[in-house]
Write a structure and sequence with these properties.
The protein has six helices and 14 strands. It has 253 residues and is an alpha+beta fold.
Length: 253
């Protein structure tokens, strides 16, 4: 059965969902870094990210964070609510790493005085530039009320995920969130969208500071698949299936 493709991103494909107001989110094994300049495949990544994101979205729902997640459909797909994506990436930093270290000359691994929240405009052609609240409200990407709500949700998510990862021996260094507007009976609410996985988080082992995320791919550290599997294993969501089952289907409409 051919499904209507709605959108294809670097790591996921969105298809028309089985009922109105839903989409099917398919997780690919494709990996990209440095705004698509580096490309590769991480075997089984789509399967692992589907499981990890499902688990984290469900945990966040349990503490009252509204999300677009409905349920996992199979190894690589989940059913989500269709939302109007707010064109911002919200980045939360607990420990200095990556671009903030380069920009501000802060040594990687420095614990920040408090969680720092940054905003980037979602635009690949421009390289997802950093923007301020002033830009966001002036250009109408989000209203001041939207921003307040997203910031409150973001800080709650950070507190919760920090504790959850610490409990399995992982340090939540930083992560990226996306939000969308969900319309129900003329009522609009802001919900967490996209995914939460080692693609969108920096996770370091508490004891060794070993990187357990996409930085292993970005920086050619090797053992990328193993790092993703280890995160899934610690969360208790490693698929029973062996590596063979984790390969993507050959034909994808």
């Amino acid at each position: 059965m051919r499904r209507k493709k709605i959108y294809e991103g670097k790591a996921k494909v969105l298809f028309e969902g089985p009922e109105p107001g839903t989409l099917v989110q398919y997780f690919k094994d494709d990996a990209t870094a440095f705004n698509n300049q580096k490309q590769g495949l991480i075997a089984g990544k789509g399967v692992l990210n589907n499981r990890i994101s499902e688990f984290l979205m469900q945990k966040l729902e349990e503490i009252g964070i509204p999300t677009h997640f409905v349920r996992r459909l199979n190894m690589r797909e989940q059913l989500i609510r269709e939302v109007e994506i707010i064109p911002l990436e919200i980045i939360v930093r607990n420990v200095a790493a990556g671009s903030i270290s380069k920009r501000l000359g802060i040594e990687e691994g420095t614990i920040l005085p408090r969680a720092i929240v940054e905003y980037c405009l979602k635009d690949d052609a421009l390289g997802d530039p950093m923007v301020t609240e002033e830009h966001i409200t002036a250009f109408g990407w989000a209203s001041p009320q939207d921003l307040d709500e997203m910031l409150q949700l973001t800080l709650r998510i950070n507190d919760f995920l920090n504790g959850l990862f610490l409990g399995i021996g992982l340090k939540l260094v930083d992560f990226k969130l996306e939000f969308g507007r969900l319309w129900e009976d003329d009522q609009m609410r802001i919900v967490l969208a996209d995914e939460i996985s080692p693609d969108s988080c920096r996770l370091w082992d508490v004891a060794t500071n070993e990187k357990m995320d996409k930085d292993r791919f970005r920086r050619d550290l090797g053992k990328v698949e193993e790092a993703y599997q280890e995160v899934a294993r610690r969360l208790g969501v490693l698929p029973e299936a062996g590596p063979v089952d984790m390969k993507p289907p050959k034909v994808m409409q």
